[in-house]
Amino acid sequence: MEQNNKKTAIVTGGSRGIGLAIARQLGLDGYQVAVFATRPRQDCMQQLKTLDDAGICWRYIQGSLDQREDRRRLIEETVETYGRIDVLVNNAGVAPLVRADLLEMTEESYDRVMGINAKGTLFLTQMAAKQMLKQEIIGKKRGVIVNVGSCSAEVSSVNRGEYCISKSAVSMITTLFADRLAGEGILVHEVRPGVIRTDMTSKVQEKYDALIEAGAFPIRRWGTPQDVADAVSAFCSDKFLYTTGNYVDIDGGFHIKRL
User: Fold this and answer.
1) Three-state secondary structure call for residue 121
2) What pLDDT score does 225 carry?
3) How far is 19 from 226, CA to CA, in rounded Å?
4) What angle do the packed helices 68-82 and 121-134 form, to 10 degrees?
5) Burial 228-247 (b: 16+ CB within 10 A, else e)
6) 3-class DSSP state for residue 237?
7) What tens digit of pLDDT does each residue of 144-163 get?
8) What are 207-248's pLDDT values in tens digits?
């Protein structure tokens, strides 16, 4: 189903977890949604059914963020289907396959994590911004880019240093594009999730359960994908027209320094 009179959002890593929650929320906000993820469509249909159930207009595009041709195809197929791109949510990201001490981290692991989380995000944003610049402005802004970073941009985890470095890079990507695109009517923001209940954190659930119980988080619960989706939704609305290059922590107050 195509509705080319509506605005369109791309959500990378949108087949599950935080990305799926964002795709669903933006769809409920009235966007057509292009969902980009690595798994074959048929392997994601149980999760993606939530978009159908909500009556959302969506298209699934399979590919890997670290592949130039897949990034190009994502942009081209989205424009072919919906006519324009109004929002890009850079949510896709990976953790190291093996959590290794910083002194044992391999170049192969570093290259994989950085290639997806940093390089892929950077060059997809470049492509999307160029497309947005070709389009007439609908509404109060030309476009919005939201990067899903992490508290790991500032919080050290010495057993997954490559992930922390990649998320610090995402923060600078936010700053750079916000600076470059502000005069063009494209706003760039970042959300930094903390401990969110997803597949990525399921492997260390006991660790985080204990930290929450001990009071490490002022808001004593796990974050949910919807908590992140709500923040992205707000940035994509017209509620933040005089701010760009900022981030918001979605971390239960974990960033607060306490004595």
Assistant:
1) helix
2) 96
3) 10
4) 30
5) bbebbbebbeeebeeebbeb
6) coil
7) 999 999 999 999 999 999 99
8) 888 999 999 999 999 999 999 999 999 999 999 999 999 999
At 44, is the pLDDT very low, low, confident or very high (cuts 50, 70, 90)? very high
pLDDT of residue 199: 76
Return the structure tokens found at 163.
């992930």
Secondary structure element (H or E) that encloses residue 35, with its range:
strand 32-37
Q: How many CB atoms neighbour CB 16 within 10 A? A: 18
**H helices within the chain, ranges in order?**
17-28, 41-53, 68-82, 107-114, 121-134, 161-181, 199-202, 205-213, 225-236
Ranges 38-52, 104-118, 166-180: which has the least confidence = 38-52
Q: How far is CA 188 from the centre of its chain?
A: 12
Please write down the HEC assignment for all residues of 82-110: HCCCCEEEECCCCCCCCCCCHHHCCHHHH
Tokens 């990067």, residue?
Answer: 147
Phi first, then psi: give them for residue 235, nearest 5 degrees: -65, -30
Strands lying side by side in the sheet with 8-12: 58-62, 32-37, 8-12, 87-90, 143-148, 186-193, 247-250
Cα–Cα distances (Å) from 169 to 21, 36, 47, 203, 240, in that order, read 24, 21, 30, 25, 24
What is the end-to-end Cα distance of the chain in Å, rounded? 55
